[in-house]
Design brief:
This is Transcriptional regulator. The protein is an alpha+beta fold. The chain has one domain: Pnp Oxidase, Chain A (Roll), CATH 2.30.110. The protein is built from 5 helices and 7 strands. Strand 1 and strand 2 form a beta hairpin. Helix 4 packs antiparallel against helix 5.
Amino acid sequence: MHPNPAFRHDDRALLEALIGEIGFGMVFATVPDGPRVAHVPLLSTGDGAVQFHLARGNALTKHLDGMMALAVLNGPDGYVSPRWYADAAQVPTWNYVALELEGRVRRMDQEGLLGLLEASSTHHEGRISDGTPWTMDKMPDDTLRRMMGGIVGFEMEVLAWRPTFKLSQNKSADDRARVAAGLEAEGSPAIAELMRRLVP
């Protein structure tokens, strides 16, 4: 993550909200064949762990149980042009939000996997404003069993939280305001909004 401590944000509630809002990331681990990454939906348990599932045939699935792994979520980002600073004799950069989670992974049993699938679908269906939420009971039992047979659930006990909220904290308030306006105008309103909300 970015080495500048100005870009750290240690508010756990904010980090949990980030996981809930983004909901998708990457899990990295080194297996006997070399480094591998899986792109996965991630769900926070709210007590220091994240859960996810992989296809049974994924290159990580047979190795992850008991391993240390790294999960990464990427939030909003945007290119920052030097033309937006009062003094343009600076270099271009990138504002972004990212969260690294490092921890030990354990394989879940089928009951735990079912709980993960139910919690995940309930969370994401609740974010859709139109229509009636889909629920797991819409699936026939034999179909659900067959589909669950093709995936494996995992839980990572997070031992290290490494967030980066690079939001021009190292610039003046006037420069930040200009950068936020520039980002918004160029199609990156989410990172501009975080700059306005999270940096005093």
